[in-house]
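hey can u check if this looks right to u? its 345 residues, i copy pasted from the old doc so theres a chance i mangled smth
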Amino acid sequence: MIRAFRRKMNPACFQGGGRSGPYFEGWYYKLVTADGDRALAVIPGLFVDERGDGGHAFIQVFDGRSNRTHYIRFPRAGFASRDGVFDVTIGGSRFTAERLALDARSEDCAIAGTLSFTGLSPWPRTLISPGIMGWYSWVPFMECYHGVISLDHGIEGALTLDGEEIDFTGGRGYIEKDWGVSFPEAWIWCQCNHFSFPGSSLTGSVAIIPWIRRPFPGFIFGLQHDGTLHRFTTYTGARLRAFEVDDAEVHCVLTRKEHTLEITASRAPGGTLWAPTLRGMTHEISESMASTVRVQLTETRGGRSTVLLRDTGRHAGFEVAGDMQRLLAMHRQDGGYANNNIGKE
């Protein structure tokens, strides 16, 4: 019980100790060079099938310039973790919040090198809200849990991918993770930490969330700017006033108390990554790391509105996946409240 509590209070660490299948857990490292010319995503993880006696570990590699992706598979026994802290080993590679050491290869990919991360910016944690999911983190039957390990940080070091050395020194990074039994039926996800203002970062998603009586369109958005994290989430009582998706872009307008956040993210060509279902890592999704995202944060007090931030971010990570028509229909039916009357932080 104490170990389970400690794991919940530290979402970054491995959550799957003692879990039977189906179960997955994966971490997502986004890496962008100082000049913005190269962007990589490295995704280590573990999948356990429905029987609980199968499964495997993996490292996915996504080259954001060529949109080539690689899935490097390992035996389940090749996965190891330290209890209570984020320290995961897969084969000859090691993953922590402060360091990434890679030595992995498959028939079509070889990647090696070491990166260190400085100035980590984690999502705040409290007893009631031990991460980006707020009090939903304590609900035991969620389909998928989400954590943000660092919204923005510096990078030192280099990686060699298929014989090409990529120097990430002076670049920017982002780290998040997911775990549970399956990814949602549908979702959009956007992340960017390459704005005009150093340290500014955006992460957010809208997804179909299974619930006790009926599923609902849950959302979690965080905009870090000028030393403040502005949270627009289901559990904080925020409202998703507008949610539109077409072939060119996704547009969202969120409100919470005196703040309004407007986001418009472009849809750019991407590469294919593999996400979990109940039966395997078989859900093919398209992700781009070449999208742009326009944001505007407005504060209204005493009938007067002030724009706190108006900017365009580059090198944004972006996904639109699953039954988008159902997600959009659920949002229209929900009216933008996303079931937030069941509890607020």
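The chain has two domains: 1-13+25-49+56-123+131-137+146-179, 182-345.
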